[in-house]
Amino acid sequence: MLELDENEFYKMHTPKSRALFEQALKVEPPGASYRIRLFEPYPFFVKKSNGAKLVDVDGNAYTDYWCTHLAMILGHGCPTVIEAIQRQAENNCHPGLSHELEIVHAEKITTHVPSAEIVRYASSGSEAASFAIRLATAFTKRKKVTKAEGGWHGAYDPVHLATRQPFDVPPSGGLTKGSQQDTIVVPFDDLEEFLDRIRDQDLSCVLLEPVMTAAGTIPVEREFLKGLREFCDDTGALLIFDETVTGFRLGLSGAQGYCGVILDLTILGKIIGGGLPIGAVCGRRDAMEHFDHTKFSGTDFTYHGGTFAANAITQAAGLATTSVLDEQPVYNYLDNLGKKTREALNSIFKRQRYPAQAVGLGSLITIHTTEKPVRDARSYVLCDHQQSKRLFNYLLKNGIFMVTPEVLHGGVSYSHTEDDIKHLISTVEEFVGRSQ
Predict the structure, then answer these.
(1) How far lies 374's CA from each of 169, 344, 351, 366, 406, in Å?
(2) Quick one: 67 exposed, middle or buried, by C-beta within 10 A (0-12, 13-18, 19+)?
(3) In whole angstroms, how far apart are CA 215 and each of 150, 188, 233?
(4) Which CATH architecture has domain 79-327?
(5) 3-state SS, residue 183
(6) pLDDT tens digits, one per residue of 326-384
(7) Domain boundaries, the chain
(8) Per-residue pLDDT tens over the stretch 86-102
(9) pTM score > 0.70 for this model?
(10) How far apart are CA 384 and CA 367, in angstroms?
């Protein structure tokens, strides 16, 4: 079978990765530091990365469409970013005290992100999500929180549920009912059903990914967002976008600028740190000021802190990245390349009558192995996961890396070339032809 051939080829060419994986099994369950990095028969171990390329410990090169969890919008090792990191490291890596870069970085965010008046930093998007939700409940004096089916907001207990079907089954052990009893799971992109589920609920916030990332880079319709904004205006609930992925990827104004919706709070991460660990909460001043312990106390105050919040190395990398995004035609290039890729793949699938489709927005690309409409996280179970794994293995054999094997996710960076895209398209076409 095709899958066996690809696996045997992979094993033959990755003996050092296999040895490292066996070593990792002794100290890391299950041999990897994050579930998404693990795939069968074992992951390759990266030695070098540059531009759009990864090189593993065996010397195999891959064109990388995962881009450090979609954080490396400029590609790996961008000289401007590396130089900024080196300059900052000569002064300090992180003093654990106030420094000028955090002000300059925050000013950049407030300049570009429409809803941002004040910024507070964290070390990851997950951490920022937890602070944003805590702020919303404190500010509104309400407990109820909504999140969409399939929405991914990290590991914070109140929203770490309904990430994948079946939505009523906890995605992890260790989650108590008490931590999630005030969370209402709502449908993605269905305003009528949303309003029905939250009827008579006193909501603190509506939390949403404007592009459903983990479920397959599925964009939300603007009419749905308009309805959510009207609902929040009428009820006093805060509208929160989790733009950990889309922030600075769909443009410097993020998905909110792309969709033309004004938010109350925004969660940021990934790209704003230049590929280094970062998270941020930003939004309207009257809400954000409740992080200010000099103005509020008791339950009116919302705690926020962290040893590495606004660390100087990340701020330097983020500012360097933003300077490139500001000064060069990055988004025109990425959006055109992303659109071209999706259209070419869909043309292949349609012409060959192959049950798959490429979806996404801007530079984001996901291949769903189903012909049925992909509208929300419920589409995930419609995919032929075995066929997707075969495609994953075939791409890997041909030096192309995407995640996850069950539903292939990826994105384009500024380092990807037209030739990279042609290689991806031709390899998928070859696979489809062999699969008929």
Answers:
(1) 22, 18, 19, 11, 15
(2) buried
(3) 6, 11, 28
(4) 3-Layer(aba) Sandwich (3.40)
(5) strand
(6) 999 999 999 999 999 999 999 999 999 999 999 999 999 999 999 999 999 999 889 99
(7) 2-76+329-435, 79-327
(8) 999 999 999 999 999 99
(9) yes
(10) 11
